[in-house]
Amino acid sequence: WSSDVCSSDLTFGHHPWTVQELVGGVHTGAVRLPDIQRPFVWPNAKVRDLFDSMFRGYPVGELMFWANKKPGHDNVIGTDEKTQEASMQVVDGQQRLTSLYAVMKGLEVWREDYSRERISIAFNPLTERFEVPTPIVKRSPEWIADIEPVFADPIRARSEYLTRLRAVPERDVDSDTEMDVERAINRLYQLQNYLFQVVQIKEDLGREVVADIFVRI
């Protein structure tokens, strides 16, 4: 694109968004996809890697939104009903945003074959590992087979996890173990405060230019 477009402070702004703000925007419908994008989500292994990277404090890239409030020409993320009109459209970062939304809200999203799926990611507070849940992981008391309840109510999630762990005859759950579990679950819950840098394209930029930016990205 032309140099005056990419260098103008009047065209782009840079704003930090927390994960909680991003997921909330998707949930209400304020953050949507432009109709040039299709609402597909990554394979589950890549979703797992995203949460693992965030948990470890690794950079996971910035997002790009278009501050477009005009109705039409957009697609919602997810299969649930939305309560707000669009105020932002996702130009870059759709896969990351859809993954966060799907896991943290526990709601279905669209796959590439247009099937609907609810994505679960498992977490082991003792080893601080993430996994795509398998039958073995789901049966193991050492794993939280689905991390969505942690974001809904971390205190209840911790209590239920420790209850399962104490029920294992050979497992000694001492005070140090309880503290380690509490720290790990709280650290997972705090991912809601993880900051994404968002490049925001101003509303007055035309659709053709935004489409060109999308294609180039």
Structure report:
Residues 1-8 have low confidence and may be disordered. The protein is elongated. Helix 7 packs antiparallel against helix 8. The chain is α+β, with helices and mostly antiparallel strands and 217 residues long. Helices cover 40% and strands 19% of the residues. Strand 8 and strand 9 (129-131) form a beta hairpin. It contains nine helices and ten strands.
Summarize this, please?
The protein is an alpha+beta fold and 217 residues long. It contains 9 helices and 10 strands.
Write the layout of secondary structure elements.
Blueprint: H1 3-7, E1 12-18, H2 19-28, E2 31-34, H3 44-55, E3 63-66, E4 74-75, E5 88-92, H4 94-105, E6 108-110, E7 116-118, E8 122-124, E9 129-131, H5 135-139, H6 148-152, H7 154-166, H8 175-189, E10 195-201, H9 207-216
Parallel strand pairs: 2-5, 3-10
Antiparallel strand pairs: 1-10, 2-4, 3-5, 6-7, 8-9
Helix pairs in contact: 2-4, 7-8
Strands in their spatial order, largest beta sheet: 1-10-3-5-2-4
| Secondary-structure element series | HEHEHEEEHEEEEHHHHEH
β-sheet strand percentage? 15-25%
Mean pLDDT figure: 87
- Globally, the shape reads elongated
Number of helices: 9
Q: How far is the N terminus from the C terminus?
A: 12 Å
Query: Helices and strands: which structural class?
Result: alpha+beta
Low-confidence stretches: 1-8
Main β sheet profile: 6 strands, mixed
Proportion of helical residues:
40-55%
The total strand number stands at: 10
Radius of gyration in whole Å, from Cα?
20 Å
